[in-house]
Write a structure and sequence with these properties.
Elements (H helix, E strand, L loop, with lengths): L1 E4 L2 E4 L10 H5 L2 E9 L2 E2 L2 H14 L8 H14 L5 E8 L16 E8 L7 H4 L1 E7 L14 H12 L4 E6 L2 E5 L3 E6 L2 E4 L10 H12 L3 E4 L4 H5 L3 E6 L3 E8 L2 E2 L7 H14 L1
Parallel strand pairs: 7-8, 7-14, 11-12
Antiparallel strand pairs: 1-2, 1-6, 3-4, 3-5, 5-6, 8-9, 10-11, 10-13, 13-14, 14-15
Bound molecules: N-(5'-phosphopyridoxyl)-D-alanine.
The site of N-(5'-phosphopyridoxyl)-D-alanine (PDD) has 14 residues, from helix 6 and strand 13.
Catalytic activity: L-valine + 2-oxoglutarate = 3-methyl-2-oxobutanoate + L-glutamate; L-leucine + 2-oxoglutarate = 4-methyl-2-oxopentanoate + L-glutamate; L-isoleucine + 2-oxoglutarate = (S)-3-methyl-2-oxopentanoate + L-glutamate
Protein name: Probable branched-chain-amino-acid aminotransferase
Cofactor: pyridoxal 5'-phosphate
Length: 277
């Protein structure tokens, strides 16, 4: 693969970052994942807007030049002949002597790379996800897309050991979100999903799906829901850029709805994909 590092496009085995990089030492870095379908970037401006917001929240002095970053993304797609997959982009506060306090004059490290993944033909689209719940022990600023995601990795490994595909985090009796996706249920034709706050990532796909739902005249209730309420829902689904809307068919061993991705979920999914391409 050809990857991007600090302004250069290089073969992946020639890309280097300092061992003193604060992203590496302290998780002092922000990332974005943009999905690519048919060589096209999905919702790119929204991802760049969130990147800028995350960077501002951690006071990282880095200007998100959307045109330049778009050109960089296009260059990576072209050089890697990417049809379906994703582009991961990360900005860290760069190398500095180890100190908890931010360096006065940081030199942010920018990296990006592609991964080729056939998103639109993954088996989970038809089968849906089985998820298990787990306490949300992540930090309290999940609205900032930092690389500090070890609890997510630990929980997802645990979920897979239990035979599930993914995890839904629970805090104070309510589902926050999935490992790397926002969580929704549908009951009596009403779509229910948690409100935006510091507790969840402000999903780009969440916003698009809610917009579609409203356009289609569906009722949306923005509020938290419990595991028990989700188990009794008509449908459940998750959203994330690479997943669009993907059905959830089992939660903690209890089948949701028919046990297959629900019709409203599939309708929202297809409308979103149609609109994106
Ligand atoms: N994750 N919640 C969390 C914790 C996430 O990490 C993500 C995305 C989402 C969905 O956001 P969006 O719709 O903007 O993709 C929700 C990416 C895909 C990742 O970490 O790979």
């Amino acid at each position: 693969r050809t990857v991007f590092v600090n302004g250069s496009f290089v073969p992946e085995d020639q890309a280097t970052v300092s061992i003193f990089d604060r992203g590496f030492l302290m998780g002092d870095a922000i990332y974005e994942v943009t999905t690519v379908i048919d060589g096209k970037l999905i919702e790119f401006p929204a991802h760049m807007a969130r990147l800028a917001r995350s960077l501002a929240e951690i006071e990282m002095p880095f200007e998100v030049d959307e045109d330049a970053l778009l050109a960089m993304h296009h260059e990576l797609i072209a050089r890697n002949d990417l049809d379906q997959g994703m582009i991961y982009m990360q900005v860290s506060r760069g190398p500095a002597d180890r100190d908890f306090v931010y360096p006065a004059d940081p030199k942010p490290t920018r990296i990006a790379f592609t991964q080729s993944i056939p998103w639109l033909s993954m088996p989970f689209i038809e089968t849906g996800f089985k998820v298990v719940s787990c306490p949300d022990k992540r930090w309290g600023r999940r609205d900032i897309k930092t690389v500090q995601i070890l609890w997510t990795c630990m929980s997802k490994v645990d979920a897979q050991r239990k035979g599930a595909d993914d995890v839904w985090f629970v805090e104070d009796g309510l589902v926050t979100e999935g490992s790397s996706c926002n969580a929704f249920i549908i009951k009596n034709n009403r779509i229910i999903t948690r409100a935006l706050s510091h507790d969840i990532l402000h999903g780009v796909t969440r916003a698009v799906i809610l917009k579609f739902a409203k356009e289609q005249g569906l009722e949306v209730e923005v509020r938290g829901f419990s595991v028990e309420e989700a188990q009794q829902a008509d449908e459940a689904f998750v959203t994330a850029s690479p997943l669009f809307a993907t059905g959830v068919v089992e939660l903690d061993g209890v089948t949701i709805g028919s046990g297959k991705p629900g019709p409203m979920t599939m309708q929202l999914r297809e409308a979103h994909i149609r609109e994106s391409l």
